[in-house]
Amino acid sequence: MNILIVEDEDLAVKKIQKTLLSVEGAANVVGVTDSIRSTVEWLQQNDTPDLILMDIELADGQSFEIFKLTEIKSPVIFTTSYDEYALKAFKVNSIDYLLKPVQKEELQAALDKYKQMKKSYGPKEGEMEEVRLDSLLKELRSRLEKLEKAVGQTGDATPRTPASGDDAASTAAKDAEDELSRGASFEPRRTHDALCWLLNPFESAM
Questions:
Q1: Which tens digit of pLDDT belongs to each residue from 145-176?
Q2: What is the pLDDT of residues 118-136, one digit of tens each?
């Protein structure tokens, strides 16, 4: 599994590399970039990585600008300290959104999601890989549009308060889903756990 890490803090790079290797022995970090410019140059000059771990706040701006400057065919796992960018992240190639400090269990779950994505949306015989990835992204964006219409807003910059275990995350997600199923609106401040649960494209694929 060839992975590109986009992160502008040296300590954060070391931590995520250590965590990555502890949960995925087959991980091969093929590159590390620290800015919009260096990431665009790397992507244009190297083979497409299997996966990108991407920070949002970089030295020269937000990493969302990278998607405007070059074509990104790889799925992306975003990392950040706040949940305010979650909806925006799912509008691009995001398959998961991890809040710093990235925990071992969360990274493992994100990589498992990536592997399930490859299994469910991997290229069929004679088909280009990006075509299948595109079908995944279309499904993610479709779910995102439904969520945005239901809540009317994209949330705020309040740091996330971690959920106390799977039960808390599940409860938050179920509450949000119930609100959506009734066509009702709810407070724009939503937990990151509920958002990722609603946007998870593998609930119906597994």
A1: 665 565 554 444 343 444 444 444 445 445 54
A2: 777 665 544 445 545 555 5
Q: Which residue has tokens 């990108």? A: 52
H or E element that contains 204: none
- CATH of region 2-199: 3.40.50.2300
Phi, psi of 71 (to 5 degrees): -80, 130
Nearest-10 crossing angle of helices 104-121, 129-151:
120
- Tokens of residue 30, six digits: 């093929």
Residue 190 per-residue DSSP state: -
Q: In whole angstroms, what is the distance from residue 15 CA to residue 53 CA?
A: 13
Q: What residue spans define the domains of the chain?
A: 2-199
What does DSSP assign to residue 42? H
H or E segment to which residue 175 belongs: helix 166-181
Sign of the CA dihedral 121, 83, 42, 111? Answer: negative
Cα 105 vs. chain centroid, distance in angstroms? 15
